[in-house]
Amino acid sequence: MASSMFSGTESLTLFSSKTPNGLCFNASTFHSKRIGFNSSTTNFNFSNKARVRHNSNRIVRTIVPKCSLSASRPTSQPRFIQHKKEAFWFYRFLSIVYDHVINPGHWTEDMRDEALEPADLSDRNMIVVDVGGGTGFTTLGIVKHVDAKNVTILDQSPHQLAKAKQKEPLKDCKIIKGDAEDLPFRTDYADRYVSAGSIEYWPDPQRGIREAYRVLKLGGKACVIGPVYPTFWLSRFFADVWMLFPKEEEYIEWFQKAGFKDVQLKRIGPKWYRGVRRHGLIMGCSVTGVKPASGDSPLQLGPKEEDVEKPVKPFVFLYRLILGALAATWFVLVPIYMWLKDQIVPKGQPI
Ligand SMILES: C[S@@+](CC[C@H](N)C(=O)[O-])C[C@H]1O[C@@H](n2cnc3c(N)ncnc32)[C@H](O)[C@@H]1O
Q1: What is 206-230 written as a DSSP string?
Q2: Whose CA is nearest to atom 6 of ligand 1?
Q3: Does residue 87's CB lie within 6 angstroms of at least one atom of ligand 1?
Q4: pTM of the entire predicted model
């Protein structure tokens, strides 16, 4: 059953309402592909008895909540690589091995196709922006459904983009350097906004999702794929040292505050994890929302959090970069450990 969690065959919807006790159900007690949140409320708490339904609207289970969707996340963790300059230098080196190290362990082609499915890339003529597109791994999934000439890859790292430029299926894509928090596209420009594995480096994720809303056309869809916060203490420690691992409910809140409707969250993960999410996942969910009205987002924000022009203290910067990169190596080991467990533990048993 665990392996079927990520098979793409099941789609359940969780109906929300308000409770004074906060968001509260045990994520491990249900095996959902997609969680739908009532976007009419920005407070997405759930009633004490949340109803889980199949697509057919048949109620299949009533769950009594036990805890939050993901472990609570401290607000004061260091997150040594969650700023634009840090991400720039991190990818200066990681880009050399990115496609060979990150994708096999965390972001496989199967996962990518599963994660892009809610984006409804249903027409080859759609205008699509892939924000934080990096080496173009996700874009390779997009151009299966949309003509490459209609797709723009944007990233702040020229080193990552240089890898994308070498890929034959992406040769007709527009490839541009830019910032996810300040997109160089006009308002109401695109039919689809896709961003995979980039939000964790944005100093202000809410601003990036607000930009996603702005650049989409009326009825356009945003699809943000990103990490989820670990519940295992050691993984939580390394996650907090490295970068932002949002909680599932944070994604939903960012989308709703930006103005998106029909906000959905689909869980993803490597097949050999058998649904285990306690170590967190670098690519753990695909969140989608639909733009209900043309024009800018209703959300007003103040000035940007990070001033990239501001000089940094070189030694402090280097120290942060090294510590952050060391913490990241934990997440190179986790998928190997999970793969070994998957080989050893008999199929059908939890790992
Ligand atoms: C984990 S990679 C993901 C690349 C690609 N989307 C994929 O699926 O393989 C994250 C990318 O986000 C980019 N990035 C980080 N912060 C950014 C920002 N503020 N604006 C644009 N790109 C950013 C990085 O340069 C990096 O290429």
Answers
A1: HHHHHHHHHHEEEEEEEEEEEEE--
A2: 133
A3: yes
A4: 0.81
Rounded-to-integer distance, Cα 65 and Cα 21, Å: 11
Residues constituting the chain: 351
What sign does the CA torsion over 17, 23, 24, 25 have?
A: positive
Lowest mean pLDDT across 73-77, 205-209, 242-246: 73-77
- How far apart CA 46 and CA 286 sit, in angstroms, is 21
Q: Which ligand 1 atom is at minimum distance from the Cα of 138?
A: 8
Indicate which residue's Cα is closest to atom 14 of ligand 1: 132
Q: Would you say 134 and 91 are in contact if contact means Cβ atoms under 8 Å apart?
A: yes
CA of 196 to the centre of ligand 1 (A): 8
Task: Please give the backbone phi and psi of residue 258, each rounded to the nearest 5 degrees, phi first.
Answer: -70, -20
Between the two ends of the chain, the Cα-to-Cα distance in Å is 12
Residue 164 contacts residue 151 (beta carbons within 8 Å): no
* pLDDT one-digit tens code per residue, 126-135: 999 999 999 9
For the chain, which residues make up each domain, given as ranges? 84-290
Q: Evaluate: CB of 141 within 6 angstroms of ligand 1.
A: no
Rounded mean pLDDT, 308-319: 80
Q: Which residue has the higher pLDDT, 61 or 79?
A: 79
Closest Cα to atom 26 of ligand 1: 134
Q: At the top level of CATH, which class does the domain 84-290 belong to?
A: alpha beta
Instruction: Give mean pLDDT, residues 179-191.
Output: 97
Q: What percentage of residues in the chain have a pLDDT greater than 70?
A: 78
Task: State in Å: Cα 24 to ligand 1 middle.
Answer: 32
The reported pLDDT for the residue numbered 65 is 31
Q: Which atom of ligand 1 is nearest to the CA of 91?
A: 25
108 lines ligand 1 (CB under 6 A): no
Measured from the CB, is residue 179 less than 6 Å from ligand 1?
yes
